[in-house]
Design a protein that fits this description.
By secondary structure, the protein is α/β, with parallel strands linked by helices. It is 29% helix and 28% strand. It contains 7 helices and 10 strands. The strands form 2 sheets. It has a 7-stranded mixed β-sheet with strand order 6-5-4-7-8-10-9, sandwiched between helices. Strands 1-2-3 form a 3-stranded antiparallel β-sheet.
Length: 229
């Protein structure tokens, strides 16, 4: 990953930086298949940064790219949207979502899509709230990077995920999270909402060496969650 800091960007004058993320080959400037540029706001909230869970989920999408080609993908809590952008780059039809009442994050998502020349649908979606657009979503894969960070929001997240899984048979929720999130609580909520863990992986088990060295010190899991039927 490369980072280019800029003193200010846009009319709002906020401090921003652009980080470049490489995929394929050795995932470095001299050896890669493509890259994604992400605008990060160094003065703002959680949704304006690229977090380690996002980098790991994005790499998983790249390595599983044949699985993502030509399908509908929905990213929850997308923030800077690196996983969703990578999915779009490998051929998915992507909808990026974040909190309905957070226009700054949603506008940044649009800017990032334009910067990377991908055509993604941008949608305000707050977990646990049932606005009309959510009923029209039928993704094949749901993505969520570090969405399991605040235990007070877990129930609303799982309510939304469960609805989407029931609304689209054979859909899977692929998420990455820090072990700080409390795996036992997550397991309890999966039982409560009728979900099961179909796959669990150490997030570092498939990372290229260069990316793993940058993220050293994080303990991140990748899980695939489905309906328990």
């Amino acid at each position: 990953m490369e980072t280019n800091a800029v003193g200010s960007s846009g009319e709002d004058g906020r401090m921003k930086k652009v980080s470049r993320h490489y995929f394929g080959g050795d995932s470095v400037h001299s050896d890669h298949c493509f890259y994604v540029d992400i605008v990060e706001n160094i003065e703002e909230d959680y949704g304006m940064f690229v977090w380690p869970c996002s980098i790991i989920l994005s790499e998983y999408i790249w390595q599983q790219r044949s699985r993502f080609q030509g399908i509908s993908v929905l990213e929850l809590g997308a923030g800077t949207s690196l996983p969703g952008i990578v999915a779009a780059k490998v051929g998915s039809h992507v909808t990026l979502t974040d909190k309905l009442h957070n226009p700054q994050v949603l506008n940044n998502m649009r800017s990032i899509c334009d910067l990377n020349k991908v055509n993604c649908n941008i949608l305000g979606l707050t977990w646990g709230e049932w606005e009309e657009p959510v009923f029209n979503l039928h993704p094949k894969i749901i993505l969520g990077a570090d969405v399991l960070y605040d235990t007070t929001g877990f129930d609303d997240l799982f309510a939304t995920v469960t609805f989407l899984l029931k609304n689209s048979p054979s859909t899977v929720f692929v998420t990455t999270y820090h072990n700080r999130s409390g795996h036992h609580l997550i397991e309890m909520l999966m039982v409560k909402w009728g979900l099961k863990c179909a796959k669990i992986m150490d997030g570092f088990s498939f990372l290229p060496r260069q990316k793993a060295s940058v993220l050293h010190g994080n303990n991140i899991q990748l899980v695939e969650i489905t309906l328990d039927e």
